[in-house]
Amino acid sequence: xxxxxxxxMEELIECLRPYHRILLVGCNECVTVCSAGGRKEVGILxxxxxxxxxxxxxxxxxxxxxxxxxxxxxxxxxxxxxxxQAEAVMSMACGCGVQEIARRFKTKPVFPAVNTTFMGASxxxxxxxxxxxxxxxxxLGLTGxxxxxxxxxxRLLNGPCGGSTNGKCEVxxxxxxxxxxxxxxxxxxxxxxxxxxxxxxKDWRTGRGGGPRKIIREDLAK
Amino acid sequence: xxxxSVLEKVFASGxxxxxxxxxxxxxxxxxKIIEKAKMLQGYVDAVNVTDNQTAMVRMSSFAAxxxxxxxxxxxxxxxxxxxxxxxxxxxxxxxxxxxxxDNILCLSGDHPHFGxxxxxxxxHDIDSVQFVQMIRDMRDKGKFQGGDDILNPPKMxxxxxxxxxxxxxxxxxxxxxxxxxxxxxxxxxQCIYNLDKFEKWMEGVRDRGLHEKVNIMAGITPxxxxxxxxxxxxRVPGMDVPDEIIKRMAGVPKEKQAEEGxxxxxxxxxxxxxxxxxxxxxxxxxxxxxxxxxxxERAGLLPRPTxxx
Lengths: 222, 309
Prior knowledge:
The structure holds 2 protein chains of 2 kinds.
Chain A: E1 2-6, H1 9-16, E2 21-27, H2 30-33, H3 39-55, E3 61-67, H4 73-76, H5 80-83, E4 88-91, H6 95-104, E5 110-112, E6 114-124, E7 127-132, H7 148-151, E8 168-169, E9 172-176, H8 178-188
Parallel strand pairs in A: 2-3, 2-4, 4-5
Antiparallel strand pairs in A: 1-6, 6-7, 8-9
Chain B: H1 6-13, E1 17-22, H2 30-40, E2 46-49, H3 61-70, E3 75-80, H4 86-98, E4 103-107, H5 128-141, E5 157-162, H6 172-182, E6 186-191, H7 195-207, E7 215-220, H8 226-235, H9 243-250, H10 257-273, E8 278-283, H11 292-298
Parallel strand pairs in B: 1-2, 1-8, 2-3, 3-4, 4-5, 5-6, 6-7, 7-8
């Protein structure tokens, strides 16, 4: 999933200061799963904002809506009936959702309520960790199902570096060394010799190196 | 011979090679690098020049190498993959070679987290193994990494690092094999304090005949104080300082600890000279360059062979 964390209240209050009526829009997908911007968080933030402004002697009218998916124009259309009543929109979706709202409603200010962080997985209740950087050319088949690009601090493709200690990364003793994980996995699979194949320099064009990316599926795109 | 490098010639002569290290200054003060390098002149075959070591901004390794080369010494251009993409690296290699710098040490570098710009983007376009491969292809195939021909390809003598003390230990020989396969000519190891473990690693290196494919230089760093020994043991990732070393340093009065540290280094060199596959020593006296001549002399590594640049 795409993970996100809510921005500090002070920052949110600051960007909403000029407005009296806003639309607060959650998303039912990733940000719901990582408890950053789903229906529940929309309710909590709405109350918190109204209380904060009340203390300053100002009324803030908040219309709460949580869409099925903010990254899909079809669902964004659901905002059409509410958008005119609002002076600004605050989106609790990831950056994709915020941008879809901005694209659809060209004259309406839209502010992000969360910082979109990474593509990750849930390690346990309340803990999410990065797993993928969307490089566009997956190497997991070579590295035992552990990504060195997302999980090695130096994104070494032929690691580990000289700072790996007791299975941990030199950057943070709480961070697993990706290459220790890869090595353990190759051993568990009985394919340690796979490690000795030098992985060639990566072609970053499939990643962000080629500029903003787009997928066009001819069979679906009419 | 693959290059005109002094270091390559020393290895070819069968003598133990000696290198040391200079950290460039944190300012535009060329006299500092010249002063440091002069201390080493005549005592080592080549001088490593670090590249923003510990991820702190310093005078560029390239520029400092030029000053050292102008003294008639042979510099080893250290370059980390942290700060440059493959375009910048290849550009600097062309520039360095044009200035008569023909040794390079390929490193991934300390993470910015440790330095004075932890907010900087780290590049890591390629890793140290791919870096070695790139320079080898520049030299032997005359091709840029992107595939185009190079006009007068730079003939660099290519070094890489090895840390026998980092984890997992069991893949450290295989990691060396990858660097050799990519085209590494010489290796400088992490500072060696745990000699038993180093010798065990060398055993693994010899079992695979890797010592015949690459020139391994054992890394030696003298300790100034027991405090430094403890710091290296506890705070430097990938460093293995056995308790006996700490005890030995702590067992002498403060004013004699520096001498004890040098004694430990000299003894280590004496013992490692007999390890089959050790082809030289890399003496890294961190901000203590003036002690290198003494260590080299007491370890019986003088005189250095005279080879014209």
